[in-house]
Amino acid sequence: MKNQTDNIQARGLPTPERHAALDALRSFLTLLVIAHHAVLAYFIYAPPPGKFAQPIYWAAFPITDAAKAQGIDLLVLWNDSFFMALMFLLSGLFVGPGLVRKGAGHFFRDRMVRLGGAFILGAGLLAPLAYLPAYLQRAEATGSPGFLTAWLQLGVWPAGPAWFLWVLLAFCAVAALVFAIAPRVFAAGERFAGWCFASPWRGLLVALAAVLLAYVPMAHFVNPMHWSGWGVFFFQTTRLPLYALWFAAGVMLGLRNGLVRDLMAFNGGLARRWIGWHIAAGLVFIGFVVVLVVSAIKTSRGVPAPGWALGAGALMVVSAVITSICLLATFARKWSVETPLWASLRRNAFGMYLVHYAIVTWLQYALLAVEWPGLLKAFVVTTLAILFSWIIAAGLRRLPVLKSIL
Fold first, then answer.
1. Furthest-apart CA pair in the chain: how many Å?
2. pLDDT at 17
3. Using CA atoms, how far apart are residues 47 and 362, in angstroms rounded to an integer?
4. ω into residue 161 within 30 of 0, thus cis?
5. Terminal Cα distance for the chain, rounded
6. Lowest mean per-residue pLDDT among 209-213, 277-281, 334-338
7. How far is it, in rounded angstroms, from Cα 128 to Cα 126?
8. Is 333 within 8 Å of 305 (Cβ atoms)?
9. Environment class of 26 (CB within 10 Å of its CB; exposed 0-12, middle 13-18, buried 19+)
10. Residues 122, 161: contact at Cβ < 8 Å?
11. How far apart are CA 190 and CA 99, in angstroms?
12. How far apart are CA 85 and CA 312, in angstroms?
């Protein structure tokens, strides 16, 4: 097995590099996550508050404000269609080089410290803090003697956005195991990535076929809105194979020596066509919205529309691919040099992801009694949540006990 690993290293796999454009894109996605959660309280299709009990529909909408913001449904739909998938892809880019440089055992120990430690902090401490305002809004309807009692009576432990951390850790564990027992799989992945991207159109067609196969059959048999969970471990059922695919794609892209650098080059073919990718992403997203609306209208009228529903799911994942390429092209063209502001955001983005949810829900709760339009509330919560998350994450990174995590 050692000889096989040495052979992989001899193939010239890259060591981790800093890519200003990719760093900026990761930071941008963190801002999108914060904005997404900040506006959900004012989402026009948010369910009524109900009780703080099972089923936990309120987990996705901890605070539901009577003030609504027209138009943010498009932001929510756009975010939901692609941003977590792209985060898994970006997370996978440096897995291969990290395994080669550190070895499977050392790599996984590092991931356990960072991702496992962050998950324990996020799910164990910050999630109850984030959901306390949800209980306070629903306390009268729930009839419970207190938050702790109501929380323990759930029978599960909602983790909030920390679900991403344990799923990513599980994917990293699988990658480390495969590298340890079958390193030739990584060599094959490197060759496959090279074959795909020898022709950009071939790479695009392979990506579209893969996401359709990973998602559409699952969406046919399982409600796309369904979440599975055991204790503190939650994931969106239909999207788990899709997220695994995006992570694996990131791993394969990172394996091919120089491929990521070439793809994200300022004068590369991807960056030069960034405007065209914007047009393509917009058109596909509009098509997705139209098909989704038709499906929703037919369903609301009691007309079975499985074909329209599957069509919406197919267009969603196609839109995710095109939108992701669009963002990669845009950031390659526009963010090839890191500024001090983006450098600070890069350093603190992980911490911001971890702490933002509690900040968001408390800000939303504080504004429940304020008679402002929903759009203004959404803007204020988004702005303050980004600012406070940034400041708190920067402060927490100075603590020695959290330095290795954040």
1. 68
2. 58
3. 19
4. no
5. 34
6. 334-338
7. 6
8. no
9. buried
10. yes
11. 14
12. 17
Question: How far apart, in whole angstroms, are the C-alpha atoms of residue 251 and residue 262?
Answer: 16
Cβ contact 200:272 at 8 Å: no
AA letter at 61: F
- How is residue 366 written in tokens? 């504080």
Element (H or E) spanning 20, and its range? Answer: helix 20-39
Strand partners of residue 229? 234
- Residue labelled with tokens 């809105």: 225
Q: What distance in Å separates the CA atoms of residue 354 and residue 406, rounded to the nearest whole number?
A: 9
Residue 110 scores a pLDDT above 80: yes
Q: Render pLDDT for 148-174 as a digit per residue (tens, 0 to 9).
A: 999 999 999 999 999 999 999 999 999
Q: Single out the residue of 30, 45, 29, 49 nearest to residue 364, CA to CA.
A: 49
d(CA 257, CA 194): 9
**CA atoms of 360 and 364, how far apart (whole Å):** 6
CA angle 311, 312, 315 (to 5 degrees): 85
What's the residue count for the chain?
406
Q: Is there a contact between 158 and 234 (Cβ–Cβ < 8 Å)?
A: yes
Q: Using one digit for the tens of pLDDT, what is the confidence trace for 9-58?
A: 444 444 445 688 999 999 999 999 999 999 999 999 898 999 999 888 89
Distance CA 78, CA 316 (A): 9
> pTM of this prediction?
0.93
Report CA 366 to chain centroid distance, whole Å. 27
> Cα torsion at 382, 385, 391, 396 (round to 10°)?
-140
Residue 139 C-alpha from the chain's centroid: 31
Rounded to whole angstroms, the Cα distance separating 350 from 288 reads: 31
Q: Is pLDDT at 391 greater than 50 in this prediction?
A: yes
| Residue 364 CA neighbour count, 13 Å, CB half | 35
